[in-house]
Amino acid sequence: MELDKKEAEVVKKAIRYWEEKETVSKEVADKLRASIELRNSNVDAIAIYALISAISCGLLAFGALVIDEKWIELLRKRWGFSESIVGVGFALLSALFIYLARRRKLKSKSIRASTEAYNITIILTVAIAITYWTRSFANPNSNYAIPLLIATIAYGSIAVFLESTLLWTVAILSLAGWWGAQTHFWAHGSYRFLGMNYPLRMTVFGLFVWALSWPLSRIKNAQFLSDITYSIGLFLFLLAAWTLSIFGNYDDLSGWKVLKQSHFWYWAAAFTLVIAGLLYYSIQNKLDVLRDLCLFFFLVNIYTRYFEYFWDRTNKGIFFALLALSFWFVGRKAEQWRGKAVS
Which of 36, 146, 245, 276 is 20 to 30 A (C-alpha) from 221? Predict the structure, then answer.
């Protein structure tokens, strides 16, 4: 079996442990060790870098052609195409790409990275199709959240069909945009919706997405979406909660600027308690994603509180020394956790 260097070390340690405990004989252990083949990591690295380069060049080409040159608009006006026709054309092109992606996935299930990179073309063509479709019937009083809702449904459906976590990620981000725009529309342009400002609304949204991973993990055809939904939902929840600890449920930016940050101390205290509680729970239950994200936001929270309350009163050298020490501490703890996981 082909393994990379780190995986091989873990397997060899396991074989050595079984041999010491006499779970397997020496002959079986030798056969297991002989069956290990080191994968060429240089080839993997070259493949990854080539994919990154291809994606970057593709996005730059898309930006240069569509955004800078606006060739779609030039062709549309030259041939007299309506915006609806352009939308239908790109929808058909998207359907072709989806068909090719599905066929590619069925034939080559092992090349997941390049398959996901190919899905970027689907993301771009669907975005153009939805843009022109919605522009064709838009008016000054229309709800501009509708295109984001259509995008969410389209990307989500395609993600399930192609079993693509990349497309599902775009669907969640589109849903986040829809939630912000739709609540703004429902609030008639006010910064409050049901008594919530934007940070509080996005905190609720992040909590919803995070919780969505639980039912997804119990649906057979959607289990592959559970982990990515868990990670994105948790990140959105913690990010929004962090902004909430800074702004509170305040809806007047000019009024917020003249207030002292100590006015929002209870929001900061609540965020700190939530982070500490989740961090303790993650360590106790060995939840790596929850632990790592909570640890990151715990440090961000400490630095945020420092800038809010102590930046003008503390020596800057001491601050950056503490910053370096904290990063060293995180790195040291990460090494210890990794050592325990391997042993």
Answer: 146
